[in-house]
Amino acid sequence: MKARGQSLGGPVLQKNRHVPERSCVACGAKMPKMQLVRVASSSEGTFTIDTTGRASGRGAYLCKSSECWEQAIVKGAIERSLRRELSAQDIGQIRTYYQENIAPNVTAT
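The structure assignment produced for this chain is given below.
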């Protein structure tokens, strides 16, 4: 009888793990979920930058490009994805988060 994880005469192959992908709301690029930043809106109307990717509510994903962040705000892609209007305070929070957390880590190309 063979033990679990062993085959009869051949090497044991690792299973490829499923990597969830999401699309950037600004440019449409598909990337692994962990490489994108999630902006979330709960059913109570609260707005957050979801750093864990697990907050409840509707979410909009953005890649780490400054053009995408600005385009998502100007063209209303975040509002469309979240199905709600963003206040000036919400937009300020998005810009501040980008400037403090994303922009310093993005290398110039």
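Interim note for the steering committee: The chain has three helices and five strands. The chain has a mean pLDDT of 89.
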